[in-house]
Amino acid sequence: MLLQVLYYIICIELSERRNVLNNKVGIMGGTFDPIHYGHLVIANEVLFKFDLQKIIFVPTGNPPHKRSAALADSYHRYMMTQFATMTNQDFDVSNIEVEKESISYTVDTIRVLKDHYKNTKLFFITGTDAVLDLPNWKAPEEILKLCTFISVNRPGYVTDTLEDKLDKLMEKYNGEILSIRAPQLKISSTDIRNRIKEGRPTKYLLPENVEQYILKKGLYKIDDRKK
Ligand code: ATP
Ligand code: MG
After folding, report:
1. What pLDDT, on a 0 to 100 scale, did the predictor assign at position 225?
2. Which of 136, 143, 147, 188 has the most ligand 1 atoms within 8 A of CB, as the residue to mutate?
3. pLDDT value at position 227?
4. Ligand 1 in contact with 212 (CB < 6 A)?
5. Does 130 sit in the ligand 1 pocket, CB within 6 Å?
6. I want to staple 196 with a disulfide (CB 3.0 to 4.6 A). Which of 26, 89, 161, 220 is the partner?
7. Which phi and psi (to 5°) does residue 179 adopt?
8. Distance CA 145, CA 129 (A)
9. Ligand 1: which atom is nearest the Cα of residue 184?
């Protein structure tokens, strides 16, 4: 009996230790205005290459670097992100930023997620353009203390000196930035919005249910997209 109890205690201990070691979660932030296959393919590649438990998509609420008048309402962007990720059980969507009344900064979001996911290594996924913009973010040093960045090549933004630039950022902020390659899709939300405004096709650039949602809600058709 005693031996059996000891055996169970050891099993629980080992499985908890394995959980602690295996806890790796990816965070994919973005305005997702709208979400498209460029976002989805890089998230899935990182999920696979780093053997993460899941990826949490975090649509921005009121991003400091983009004028909110030029964005679809955060509710619509949140809904589109939900629709786009619903067929992947390893993709989650967080409303942490869209629910906020005030401007949302990445550092605040990561603090909250770090607090929630204790004993978990967090990875923040960005395209090349976003990672090179890191010096303009609030508290980059703290962000890099709380999580590891994964920079994914984005067509149009990849430079010969990328590795040098990433090295300099790591040195400056004393953090870890890993760089990986993923299938390159030259898709941007800006192009999709322009296409919709001009009546050009968007098929095969983004999931069909997102396209349907945009159509149903009449998003991006007019300049003032605050609907
Ligand atoms: P916009 O044109 O409105 O800026 P976007 O297509 O750049 O939209 P964002 O929501 O700004 O999309 O980007 C969220 C994240 O996804 C950023 O880290 C960005 O670098 C990355 N990303 C977006 N599109 C691609 C793509 N086609 N390939 C690789 N990374 C991408
Ligand atoms: Mg962008």
Report:
1. 43
2. 188
3. 42
4. no
5. yes
6. 220
7. -120, 130
8. 21
9. 28
Contact partners, residue 83, CB within 8 Å, separation at least 6:
207, 209, 210, 213
Q: What is the pLDDT of residue 226?
A: 44
Nearest atom in ligand 1 to 191's CA: 2
Amino acid letter, 9: I
Calculate the average pLDDT of the chain. 89
Show the tokens assigned to 121. Answer: 């290594």
Mutate to test the pocket of ligand 1, among 98, 189, 196 (most ligand atoms within 8 A of CB): 189
38 lines ligand 1 (CB under 6 A): yes
Six token digits for residue 218: 């009449």
> Which residues lie below 8 Å from residue 12, measured CB to CB, with a gap of 6+?
none
pLDDT digits (tens, 9 = 90+) for 80-98: 999 999 999 999 999 999 9
Residues near 98 by beta carbon (within 8 Å), at least 6 away in sequence: 59, 60, 61, 74, 75, 77, 78
Evaluate: CB of 77 within 6 angstroms of ligand 1. Answer: no
CA 226 to chain centre: 23
